[in-house]
Amino acid sequence: MLYHLGFIIVSLLIIVIPLLISVAYFTLVERKFMGSMQRRRGPNVVGFMGLLQPLADGLKLFAKETILPSNANIVLFVLAPIITFVLSLMGWIVIPFGEGAVVSDINVGILYLFAISSLSVYGIITAGWSSNSKYPFLGALRSAAQMVSYEVSIGFIIVTVVICAGSFNLSTIVLAQSKIWFIIPLFPMFIMFFISALAETNRHPFDLPEAEAELVSGYNVEYSAMGFALFFLGEYANMLIMSGMTTILFLGGWLPLFDIMPLNLIPGPVWFSIKLSIFVIAFIWARAALPRYRYDQLMSLGWKAFLPLSLGWLLFTVACLISFNWLPE
Predict the structure, then answer these.
(1) 27-56 CB burial, b ≥16 within 10 A, e <16
(2) Where does 201-306 have alpha helices with state H?
(3) What's the whole-number mean pLDDT along residues 220-241?
(4) In the predicted model, is pLDDT for residue 48 greater than 70?
(5) H/E segment holding residue 313
(6) Residues 67 and 74 sit within 8 Å (Cβ to Cβ)
(7) Is residue 280 within 8 Å of residue 148, measured between CB atoms?
(8) Can you give the C-alpha Rg of the chain in angstroms?
(9) Which of 130, 204, 215, 307 is close enough to 77 for a disulfide, judged by CB 3.0 to 4.6 Å?
(10) Long-range Cβ pairs for the range 31-37 (8 Å, 24+)
(11) Are the beta carbons of 126 and 136 closer than 8 angstroms?
């Protein structure tokens, strides 16, 4: 019993510590990448080429005073960023980085991930309501409506992939793409999934819950120091996990691009990291290049475009699989 508990704790630390380091340096990559796109340098003072900037930012937020608004519900106010941060870490225990390289290879891994991503809205709603301020509350309402709108289409997209793979297990979904990645037959679903992932993580051009122009900073406007830092870490960890989900569902996870000898020598986790990095850069590019949507445009896209399209493609995929007797056993 103790041995099994110790193994679980070590496995979690092996995932959580590199993840936190990745999130910290994700922020540096984003600032450098956006600086390059806008023809400026980005962080380059703290450490060699600015490599210590994320550590300096973390230390600054850790050392700052935590200010609790006098009208806030203090218990929920403190609990909200913790909920968001913990949920952003919980999803990683079912992500397979390579063949057998997963903490918990459960049979309903995709449902677990979908449930965790759905629960993340509770941290934002709790933060907006407990702040007892109108701007955070408006941001929380926006986030809730936005997540509901896009999770419906994400659900249909995931069901389509599950039907093609014949399993809810993430490792089985990856192995089902050994001959052809699902991005090729399900390309429209891939596009909708990635755009929905932007909306699900409240990222540009769908960052309406924290729009600076009208909501100052949205649901986290009353937060400072470590409360703000936990929201910040949770948001970037969610971006990484959505990038990992896109890689697993459509780009063959840890499988190489072609089944040839030189590529097969590269370890599976390396392939997974390369593919995940492509989507991370796409998140950054979207923030630097695209203007923010209006809120009515955001809702219209989710309910009037993505919902009928994802449902229609699901029915079309099932019809093709039944017609050609391709349904997996």
Answers:
(1) bbbbbbbbbeeeeeebbeeeeeebeebbee
(2) 212-215, 225-250, 261-264, 268-289, 295-300
(3) 83
(4) yes
(5) helix 307-323
(6) no
(7) no
(8) 20
(9) 130
(10) 33/281, 33/284, 33/285, 33/288, 34/284, 34/287, 34/288, 37/285, 37/288, 37/289
(11) no
Q: What is the pLDDT of residues 287-305, one digit of tens each?
A: 888 888 888 888 888 888 8
pTM for the structure as a whole: 0.86
Decide: residue 106, CB within 10 A, 0-12 exposed, 13-18 middle, 19+ buried: middle
DSSP calls for 154-220: HHHHHHHHHHHHT-S-HHHHHHTTSSS-TTTTTHHHHHHHHHHHHHHTT-TTS-GGG-HHHHTTGGG
Cα 306 to Cα 323: distance, rounded to the nearest angstrom: 25
- Return the half-sphere exposure (C-beta side, CA atoms, 13 A cut-off) of residue 48: 0
Q: Are the C-beta atoms of 286 and 203 separated by less than 8 Å?
A: yes
Rounded-to-integer distance, Cα 241 and Cα 257, Å: 21
Please say if the pLDDT value at position 17 is more than 70. yes
What does the alpha-carbon distance between residue 273 and residue 244 come to, in Å, rounded to a whole number?
A: 9
- Rounded to 10 deg, the angle between the 134-165 and 187-200 helix axes is 150
Please indicate whether residue 37 or residue 10 has the higher confidence score (pLDDT). 37
214 or 274: which carries more pLDDT confidence?
274
How many whole angstroms separate alpha carbon 13 and alpha carbon 82? 18
The count of C-alpha atoms lying within 13 angstroms of the C-alpha of 192, restricted to the half-sphere facing its C-beta, is 29
